[in-house]
Structures are given as structure tokens and as C-alpha cells.
Amino acid sequence: MSEKREDIYRAAVAEFQERGFHATSMDGISARAGASKRTVYKHFESKENLFRELMRRHWARFVEVYDVRYDPSRDIRDQLREFGREEGRLLTSPEVMATTRLVMSEVLRSPELVEQNEEKTNYRAGIEAMLRAASADGKLQVVDAEQAAEEFISLIKGKAFWPVVFGAPVLSQDDMSALIESSVEMIMARYGV
């Protein structure tokens, strides 16, 4: 990826963060990037495409965290904790959560931003597969891996994601660690053998 394209992308993110999608202009992006409007349009055909790129990169960070594999040689509690820590790393990042608030607010205001380029990724697929494999290995008793994955993710997001999206402060590292431990223990109490 070219350095100029990255400069334009970073400038657009800063403009979106400061002004929101609708108040951001390609003039402002080009001025901040130190590039001509022609160069900006050469790399990104529209402001909408720039915002879609922001969403794509932002969602990719979460997809990467959710791409987990079951390891039969390791304790399932440790594997669940590791997943929780990786998700917690994102959810305690002020930059990630500020971008999440931006994306969520713009998607609610302009759903067409997502509809035209909607990802069909099942973000829970990795954790579902891990829970299913742990169950097949006799480490858990999970009948519905999709439900169990949703429950585990919801335990964490219910306190560390949604409140922050609506303006609460990002959880501290200590609070996140306690939340992860509590969430793992709840899953083990429900599905442990």
C-alpha cells in the first residue's frame, strides 16, 4: 500500500473523528493529508469509500481476535481467558473504542454506508468452533456452540463494549481482567464437565 494512500487514510480518520462523517469534506481530508484533491480521489473515489475503508479495517481487528483455535493440550479455561484478554485488549483501547463509537453512530444515521459493502463474516465462528471442539474432546458439555459463544462474548461486551459505545469510560486493565475471569468462570459453571 502506498505511503500517500496511508497518509490520506490517516487524514480521513482524523477528520471523521473530529467532525463526523457528514461534516467531513474531501477538501479537509486533502488539506490534512497534504495532498491535492485529485490525488485523494485517485486513491479513494469518494468520502463514502474512505469511510468504508475505515469500517473494513476496524472490523478486521475484531475478526482477527475472534479467529481462535482449540488446543487439546491446553486447559480450556486458559484458552477462554486468552480469548478474553485478546478481546479485552481491543475493548480497553481508547482509540479502538472511539472508532467504534464513530462507526456505530454513522451506521445508525446512514445504514446505506454498510448495506453497499456489508461484510457477511460470522465473527463468532472461531469461538464457536473452539467450544464445539472442546466439547467433543470432553472438556466442556456444549449442546449449542453458537449460543455458548454468544453468551461468552455477551458477558464481556455487556460490560466492556456497549456501555462504552454509549459514553461510559473505557474499562481499566484491572476491571477488564476481573470481567474476563468472571466471564470464564460463568461459562465453566454452565458448560464445564
CATH architecture of the largest domain: Orthogonal Bundle
CATH class division of the largest domain:
Mainly Alpha
> What is the structural class?
mainly alpha
Give the C-alpha Rg: 20 Å
Count of extended strands: 0
Determine the strand fraction and express it as a percent band: under 5%
Helix content: over 70%
Kindly report the name of the CATH homologous superfamily of the largest domain. Answer: Tetracycline Repressor, domain 2
CATH topology (level 3) name of the largest domain: Tetracycline Repressor, domain 2
Mean pLDDT: 90
Unreliable residue runs: none
Coarse shape: elongated
Counting structural domains, the number is 2
Q: With helices defined by DSSP (H or I, 4 residues minimum), what is the helix count?
A: 11
Taken in chain order, the helices and strands follow as HHHHHHHHHHH
Report the sheet with the most strands, covering strand number, pairing sense and barrel closure: none
- How many angstroms does the end-to-end distance come to? 49 Å
